[in-house]
Design goal:
Strand content: under 5%
Number of strands: 0
Distance between the termini: 48 Å
Structural class: mainly alpha
Shape: globular
Radius of gyration: 20 Å
CATH architecture of one domain: Alpha Horseshoe
Helix content: over 70%
Order of helices and strands: HHHHHHHHHHHHHH
Length: 231
């Protein structure tokens, strides 16, 4: 078993960081987030210049919904590697999750300034703007993301959801349906598709996709509320 082999390597040389990272990643796959976090913290303490370990530690805090610690960790990652897109994207996400939309928008704009061909910064900035109700700016950015990364589920879902919010249900359905075909196991995409069908009063399809979304993520509160309304 891989886990035993990595533990054996570490028993022989506790400084072997690749084995530590691999063991932590196994713990993550097993759902053992606490042991994984402890490994990442230990690696950050022993190898403060290891960007990957610091990013993984930040993600561990995200899993715990400890967004302040996540933000602090990702700030350290950005200071460590100012040109790192993953470090900046992680920092922006932690701001977003903690409800600090203004700071997340600043970071996404900085990424676009430094990496103007990186589609997912446009996509995430579009999402942040639609959350604030700035749908026209959001649509422009979402179209740019879709242009840079055509036929990608995340960008098509964002574009479709903005069309949905703007009342263009035809374009919403076209984009979100294609996103769901590209990634049928994404709970949010299935929920968005259900919302579009609900807008069209297609209740059977609405229920189908709400149930699918909840099977993937039983904690999706918006899907629960809409399904309850349809009973």
């Amino acid at each position: 078993e891989a886990k035993k082999e990595y533990k054996k390597v570490l028993s022989l040389d506790s400084k072997f960081s690749l084995a530590s990272l691999a063991l932590a990643d196994i713990y993550i796959r097993e759902g053992n987030f606490e042991d994984a976090k402890n490994i990442y913290q230990d690696l950050v303490n022993r190898f403060p210049d290891n960007l990957y370990a610091r990013l993984r530690l930040g993600n561990s805090y995200i899993n715990e919904k400890n967004y302040q610690k996540a933000t602090n960790t990702f700030k350290e990652a950005v200071a460590l590697a100012p040109a790192s897109i993953p470090a900046h994207m992680s920092l922006a996400l932690s701001y977003e999750l903690s409800g600090n939309g203004a700071e997340s928008i600043k970071v996404y704009k900085k990424i676009i300034e430094n990496a103007p061909e990186f589609p997912f910064a446009y996509n995430n900035l579009a999402w942040a703007y639609q959350e604030e109700g700035n749908l026209d700016e959001a649509l422009t950015l979402a179209k740019k993301a879709d242009e840079l990364a055509p036929e990608q589920a995340p960008t098509m879902d964002t574009l479709g959801w903005i069309y949905y919010k703007k009342g263009n249900i035809g374009e919403a359905l076209k984009n979100i349906k294609q996103a769901s075909e590209l990634n049928p196991n994404d709970a949010t995409i299935n929920y968005h598709l259900a919302c579009v069908y609900h807008k069209q009063s297609r209740n059977a399809l609405t229920k189908t996709y709400l149930k699918k979304a909840l099977k993937i993520n039983p904690n999706l509160e918006e899907a629960k509320k809409l399904l309850e309304k349809l009973k």
